[in-house]
Amino acid sequence: MSLTLKTTTGILWNMAELVSRRGVQVLVTLLLAYFLSPEDFGLVAMLTVFLALGTTLMDSGLKQALIRLKTPNQKDFATAFYANIFLGLVAYVLLFVSAPLIAQFYQEPRLIDLIRVVSLAILFSSFQTVQVATLSRELNFKAQLKANLPASILSGILAIVLAYLDFGVWALISQMLASVLLISIFLWMQRLWRPTLEFSKQSLVEMYHFGYKLFLSSVIDTVFNSLYIIVIAKVFSIATAGLYFFADRIKEMVVMQLVMAIQNVTYPALSTKQDDLVQLKASYKKLVKVMTFLLFPVFLFFAALSPLIFEMFLPDKWNEANLYLQLMIIASLLIPLHSINLNILKVLGRSDLFLLLEIAKKTLLALILFISIDYGIIGVLIGQIVQSVLGYFINTYFTKRLIDYTIYDQFKDFLPGLVLSGLIAGIIYFLQLELDCIPVVELISFSVLAFSLYFLGAYLLRLHAFELIKDLLEKKFKKKVDIS
Fold it and tell me: What is the pTM for the complete model shown?
């Protein structure tokens, strides 16, 4: 199986896993919105940055290092496993002790107990890191689906029941804890990998030499991305932070998970070509064309139809979050390209450049946030769009140097799909403003119309990405026929 076909198959399985799991979480979030207030979501928003930092410390780049190793042995996996558990304990103790200081910063005493309880998720997560790395190396995302989907359903049911019983913010905390715990249990039940009583200091040093730069990059990324929540909660209000967090959560579940599907699969897949720059560039170009062709319409059509989604599924108290979500999705358009460009650095072992880029982009983020905060929450969101565009230009600098894939070449590869999907998204957005029909009928009709026009336009214009996808599907179908 060719790298492109194998990668696309992996991405489709990973998307199935992410979309189904996140689809459940979207449904759960919409139901929780009826029982919970923006302030409840605001409290969770305040603590997520610290939970993310603790999780990053627990992982410390070891999962990525395991994926990149050409021939890891049992001792490498066992070493990473015990290191993750130890670092998870360290992260939990640090958060437990720091909880009063965090609550004092926000002037919100309720955060003390919330942080001390939700931080247990870091310990639960430490038991699944090596399992996920093993599956990712094999591009086996089907096994991850078997663990993640039932965990999402069960944790969602628990959260809805607690929200209905008026447990407030604790319903969200219980969902976060139960989800991580159940995923770990279901992964171990599949008996994918088992630790042995082995530990290699040399192996740990080698993995950490690569991983610590990714760890620092993740810390920088988490802190600076969370500046939005921190600043919004301090400058505006907990309710505004809750509306922002709610919109961001919907974006993460619907949009960012598709991006993660690409990143999760392309990194281990491209790692197999790290010694052949010519094949690496060729595979990379195909992935850019195929992935942007598939994701751009999903992002833009979702943004165009989000007013109907809010009208159908959410009470009026969340209406303000609709515009937040639309601007966030526009800011996310280039993230697939960000992710694949950064994966090239990891594939080629240049975690030093990865760290340098993160420092440069986050400095830019802080500067733009400092300027945009004076223009209110909408100004902050527009600033995110500006930062994403400028960050893309920064990311592509080293891609040009390392594999000679220039920004001009990238523009030629993804711009046709972007323009076509943008035009169609604009049409359906204004059509829904003019028509006055039952929301569910409009949503289904416009969704079908949008994708029909998109694929018809791609066929008539003979877009190369469309031809690539058609060829990949034909090869996949032919393979299945040959096997049968």
Answer: 0.73
